[in-house]
Amino acid sequence: MQEMNLPSEDGERVLFPRLCLEGQIGTQMIAEQIEGSSSFTSGDVCGLIRCLTQQLSRWMGMGYSVKIDGLGIFTPSLALDKGKERETGEERRNARSIGVGNVRFKADKQLVRETDRSCELVRTPETIRRSSTKYTAEERLARALSYLDSHPYLRVADYMTLTGLKRTTAAKELREWVEAGDRGIAASGGGRYKVYVRAEKAAK
Hints:
Elements: E1 2-3, E2 15-16, H1 27-36, H2 42-61, E3 66-68, E4 72-80, E5 98-107, H3 109-118, H4 137-150, H5 156-163, H6 167-180, E6 185-188, E7 195-198, H7 199-202
Antiparallel strand pairs: 1-2, 3-4, 4-5, 6-7
Helix pairs in contact: 1-2, 5-6
């Protein structure tokens, strides 16, 4: 149970249940699990997933939402390009300054039900006051390095999941790890495609 940052109107603590994630599973792990229980090879599964994502992006790019039975609905949403100001009554934006900024996902009820059936909850003994104070800075760094031991890169969203930090704080801390130069983490790419990798891998 986690305590909300703001108390209730009566000044009392407000607690809500929060799932403590064990980590993140990637495509390769899913493919290997399917290979072990079907006639498909892990390569077949990875290929099909790539085909699926290509079809998703194609149809959403044409202005459709896409429903995958048992999985959910994918819907594209627009956003202004970086550095562009919002449209006002005096100044209008043309289509070139707008692009797809995100893809929203609404899970199918069947997926939610099956996830619930697979989930065996055990309550942690302590109450987490704030997610950002659950781990010390060194513990957060250790979790990031451990994640990179089994994943090619780390996104800000991944670091948020690992540590419980808010996006702004997570991004700031990752930049600090990189700037320090001796924490084992380096940046790769830029802008919306910026990710974080093991420093020794970035040097190759």
